[in-house]
Amino acid sequence: MNVSSSPRTDITFLRRRIKAASAQASAPTAGAAISQGANAPLLAPAVPVAPAAPSLTLRSTPQAAAHAAPPAQATPPQRSAGLVLGGGAPASSMGPRAKKLVAQREKARHEDHEVALLFPAPAIEDVYELNLVDRALRLSPLQSSVGTLLVSGSTAVVWESVRRVVGAQTADGHKAGSPVETSGNRELVGYVGSDALITLRHVRELRRAIFINRSSSAMGVRLFSGDTVALPPAAEGTQMVLLVHRIGNVLELRAEPVPLDWQDVAIWQEFDFSMTHRAPSSAYGR
């Protein structure tokens, strides 16, 4: 192949690759390989050996090891003081009072849910008398927690607290079981003169109460707001007892008929009241 000794430089895309003359001279020709014979050993091309890279060797001496600085300890990562979401949140630092308030709010939320599941019932403004026809009414949360629920005309009362403390009292002063003392240093249910009272400020400590009327006059209920409702006296061998029980944060008043000849103990047993008796003071010194 004819190779121009002076290739054109103005047309770069027409240029051909030109092998170096030294590469053509050093390459063995096909004729030389045939002349050496088929049994001639083939010589492997020489592979240049690269010199070994110099390595740096550090030898520690006793003096250098003694003066060597100790390795730096890894510093633990500092937690950010900003907003922390998820399971890595720090432990709560609420005090006992704050925890108590949180528990009370959670309990109140649960009680509100219980009240929402109740069937509809008339209010005290809609009922004049609780009898065999109109058997029940339900107070509002405000009416159930403000002031005092006063029951006039009753001759005896029996109560039960949320701690299952049961007691009873008659209008003439006879008592049985145990009273329920509140944080205000007053009884939750009891008599003041001839009227029976329920302290509504501590109504969450009440579970239920029954008011018994053995007189010939009607029994009445009055709230702090002035709303009232009455229960008829005994007639035709039947007497009406007033059952007051708490559901969540509201009170429900029901008229329950019982035989007239039943004594107080029989009424307690009918509604599953069992008196709670305190141990004598001498028993605490054992």
Q: How does this structure look, described?
A:
There is one protein chain. The longest helix has 21 residues, at 96-116. This protein is of the alpha+beta class and 286 residues long. A seven-stranded antiparallel sheet has the order 1-12-11-8-3-4-5. A five-stranded antiparallel sheet has the order 6-7-2-9-10, with no helix packed on it. The chain has a domain at 124-279. The protein is elongated, with a radius of gyration of 51 Å. β6 and β7 form a beta hairpin. The chain has five helices and twelve strands. The protein has helices at 21-26, 30-35, 62-66, 96-116, 264-270; strands spanning 136-138, 148-152, 156-161, 166-170, 175-177, 189-192, 195-199, 206-212, 219-222, 228-231, 238-247, 250-259. Residues 61-78 have a biased composition (Low complexity). Residues 58-100 are annotated as: Disordered.
Task: Please write out the topology.
Elements: H1 21-26, H2 30-35, H3 62-66, H4 96-116, E1 136-138, E2 148-152, E3 156-161, E4 166-170, E5 175-177, E6 189-192, E7 195-199, E8 206-212, E9 219-222, E10 228-231, E11 238-247, E12 250-259, H5 264-270
Antiparallel strand pairs: 1-12, 2-7, 2-9, 3-4, 3-8, 4-5, 6-7, 8-11, 9-10, 11-12
Region (Disordered): 58-100
Biased composition (Low complexity): 61-78
